[in-house]
Design brief:
Elements (H helix, E strand, L loop, with lengths): L1 E4 H4 L11 E4 L2 E4 L3 H8 L13 E4 L3 E5 L2 E6 L4 E4 H10 L3 E7 L1 H4 L11 E4 L2 E4 L3 H9 L12 E7 L12 E7 L5 E8 L14 E5 H6 L4 H11 L3
Antiparallel strand pairs: 1-4, 2-3, 4-5, 5-6, 6-7, 8-11, 9-10, 11-12, 12-13, 13-14
Bound molecules: zinc ion (2 copies).
C-alpha cells in the first residue's frame, strides 16, 4: 500500500455528483466519493480524541493514518474515528439492544449452578440461567473488586451486532452499576489468574469487576466477551 502525503491528496477532493477520478500509481480513485469527503469535512481528525491523520495510503481503497493508527471514515455517521477510539468504545461499552430492566432480586436467586441448559421465562423471553457471570455475581457479590462500584440492576439485552448467526439473537442479562455521573457501567467477570497464564474458566478463578477496571487491567475483555457470546454462556 503506497503512502501519499496529505498535500498529494487533500487538495484534490471535490464535492460533486459526478465521479472525479484521479490516478495514484496503479489505482484510479474517485475524489468526489463520500469517503473522501468525510476525510475532508472532518479535517482528517478523529472526532473522539482529536488526533489528525498525517498521510494517506492508497491501494484499491484510500486509508488515512497518523503514524500507524488508522483513522477510519464512519459512513453511517459521516465522521472520522481512529482505530484506538473505536477499540476503546467497544471495550468499555459493547453494543447491546435492551429489552427491559430487572431488579437484582428478580435475577440472582434464579442462578443455576450447572452445565445444564436451564432456562427461565422473563416476559416471553427464555433466558439461560447458568451463565458463569450470574454464578460469579451470586457467590462473590456485585462489587467490582478493584474500584468497589456495585452492580445495581440487570438489563435484559442482546448483541446489537448484525450477524446472520442466530445465537447472537438471544437475550441475556447484563449487570450494570452507575458511576458518579449516573452513567451505566457494565459489570463483567474477571479472571484472577489470566487466561493467558493458563487461568481456568472455573468459578474459583473468577471475580466481579467493572468493565472500566477490566480495560485498565489490560485484559482482553473484548475477546472474552466475544468468546462468551460464542459459547452461548451469557
Ligand atoms: Zn481517536
Ligand atoms: Zn471497577
Amino acid at each position: 500500500m503506497k503512502k501519499y502525503s496529505i498535500e498529494e491528496v487533500l487538495p484534490y477532493i471535490t464535492k460533486s455528483e459526478n465521479k472525479n477520478r484521479m490516478r495514484f500509481g496503479r489505482y484510479k480513485i474517485n475524489m468526489s466519493s463520500k469517503i473522501m469527503n468525510i476525510f475532508k469535512d472532518n479535517d482528517l481528525t478523529c472526532q473522539k480524541c482529536g488526533i489528525k491523520g498525517d498521510h494517506f495510503r492508497i491501494y484499491n481503497t484510500v486509508k488515512l493514518f497518523k503514524d500507524k493508527i488508522q483513522i477510519i471514515a464512519i459512513n453511517s455517521k459521516n465522521i472520522l474515528e481512529c482505530q484506538e477510539c473505536r477499540k476503546k468504545e467497544r471495550m468499555t461499552r459493547p453494543y447491546y439492544i435492551r429489552f427491559k430492566i430487572y431488579t437484582i432480586k428478580e435475577v440472582i436467586p434464579f442462578t443455576v449452578f450447572s452445565k445444564e441448559d436451564t432456562r427461565k421465562e422473563y416476559d416471553g423471553n427464555l433466558i439461560r440461567m447458568n451463565s458463569l457471570r450470574y454464578q460469579v455475581f451470586s457467590t462473590k457479590g456485585l462489587k467490582c473488586i478493584e474500584c468497589g462500584i456495585e452492580g445495581k440492576f440487570f438489563a435484559m439485552e442482546k448483541s446489537a451486532r448484525s450477524n446472520n448467526n442466530n445465537k447472537y439473537d438471544i437475550y441475556h442479562f447484563n449487570l450494570y452499576a452507575l458511576d458518579e455521573q449516573g452513567r451505566e457501567v457494565l459489570m463483567t467477570k474477571d479472571h484472577i489468574i489470566p487466561k493467558s497464564k493458563n487461568g481456568s474458566n472455573k468459578l474459583e478463578n473468577l471475580q466481579p469487576m467493572c468493565c472500566i477496571c477490566n480495560v485498565k487491567k489490560g485484559s482482553d475483555l473484548t475477546l472474552s466477551l466475544l468468546k462468551e457470546e460464542d459459547s452461548g454462556y451469557f
